[in-house]
Design goal:
The complex is a heterodimer of chains A (278) and B (263).
Chain A: E1 2-5, H1 11-17, E2 23-27, H2 37-48, E3 51-54, H3 68-81, E4 85-89, E5 92-95, E6 98-104, H4 110-127, E7 132-134, E8 141-142, H5 149-160, E9 163-167, H6 168-177, H7 182-187, E10 194-199, E11 202-206, E12 212-216, H8 224-237, E13 242-244, H9 253-275
Parallel strand pairs in A: 1-2, 1-13, 2-3, 3-4, 4-7, 7-9, 9-10, 10-13
Antiparallel strand pairs in A: 5-6, 11-12
Helix pairs in contact in A: 4-5, 8-9
Chain B: H1 14-22, E1 32-33, H2 40-62, H3 64-70, H4 72-85, H5 100-105, H6 116-131, H7 140-147, E2 157-160, E3 165-169, H8 173-179, E4 195-202, E5 205-211, H9 213-223, H10 228-232, H11 240-249, E6 253-257
Antiparallel strand pairs in B: 2-6, 3-4, 4-5
Helix pairs in contact in B: 2-4, 3-4, 3-6
The chains are: A alpha/beta (278), B alpha+beta (263).
Amino acid sequence: MIGLGLKSSHVAQVLDTGAAVDFFEVHAENYMVDGGPFLRHLERVRERWPLSIHGVGLSIGGEGPLDRTHLARLATLLDRFQPAWFSEHLAWSSHGGHWFNDLLPLPYDAVTLRRVCDHVDEVQQRLRRRLLLENPSTYVEFVASSMDEAQFLNEVVRRTGCGLLLDVNNAYVSAVNHGRDAWAFIESLPAAAVGEIHLAGFAEDVDAGGDRLLIDSHGAPVADAVWTLYARTMARLGERPTLIERDNDLPPLATLEAEAARARAVLRDATTAVAAPP
Amino acid sequence: MSSTAVRGAPPLTQRDLAAALLDPAHPIPAGLVAWNGSDPVARFAVHRNNVVVSLVAALAETFPVVRELVGAEFFAAMAGLYVAEQPPASPVLAHYGDGFADWVARFEPAAALPWLADLARLERARVRAYHAADAPVLGADAIALRLADPSRLPQARLALQPSLCLVVSPYAIVSIWAAHQGQGRLEDVDPGRGECALVLRVGDEVVVQAIAPAAATFCGRLLRGLSLGEAAAIDAAHDLRASLALLIGQGAIVAWQDGARGS
């Protein structure tokens, strides 16, 4: 299954003439409103397509307790729309009553692991469903980290039973940004736990040492390197629901449908190849 | 479990990072590292940039006319300062910006445009109206039935659409706003002529309409829960029939609680 993010500027067209996709994904927080067109439109989309609800505001990695009010809003939204998948991020985004609208990085140490697992447990119990936890794009690392990101994610999955949303672009961005091998990261994730894939575009920058620094911009087409990594990932994992993410510099719906078609072709080739052993 | 490299150093907390996010002058706390030994401050700047740019973009979406009035560059600088002073309290960005108009009113560099704050109020009211709760419009028959018994009218209490809101200004905020929607020319607007805006959602559209001051007073009183009789007692200039026709015409009335006859 190949999906697209549902954008308010496309929704009229989607409802009017349909779209060549198998599911839609929305950011949970955009629909935490009392009423109006957003909720009405989403109800109509939900009648025709499976839905993935993707949270950006839970701050699962936050040092403080989870925001129970926000969790209650999520529960209401999930009850109403019954999505096929629900996902959130391995990151923090609020502190001291402020919300930063960014996915901020965590040290991968024992203290953080315990806290993230506690929060994932609480989310899954409160929402009574499996959470897919997304690997982040990161730009800095912590001196305090005592394990790598794949080890950390493996432990969270093992301890909480949550699934993973594998963002292949994030895997590539983080690998380049930290001088590592993206495939080694993907290969060491627990394959069975991966419930959804994200693909997106990045922006190029350089760091203070002159090395490439990739920014997860969601503002460009999926890069060739990420397509290659996606094909390899699908050959290893088998088919997984795959989303093309685009939030900035939004092109016409047809452009995104073409990218979705490319994902479908890559997925077909990759999973066919795996069916024919050498 | 922490690495020996930070032995003796206080652990890097999210409080430290949060402070550094909102204040570019705040030093980046120790404890961050880059694989190539490059300065992590330049890398952490990605997050500083994400926070400010994304929240300024959210404000630009809510306040497009304010942005057009001051220009994109001025708006980005102004909104950036607001973001640093009043970051969102909630991840629901539809709620962000309630304090922006009051903040703009105190923002000295914008003092040359004294109507800017009230325009911000109007634009914020539009976003709130767009996402406000839905409520079925009270049918024309039901309203006609009530109007047919004038003796009960003074005690009646009307519930209005949850999306309905008033913005009363000593400036021509509706005309300025409308000129930015291609209705009328900005050069023809006398900004110093006060206007009252009625804002509400009709179907999927948010309507902004200039109404007479007496009509605004009337609607404001209904919103505060006063009876029709109490709300209508304004002055000789108030045309109750016209005010009611306005509310009925926009589908603004959602409930009509009759008063007891002659009470």
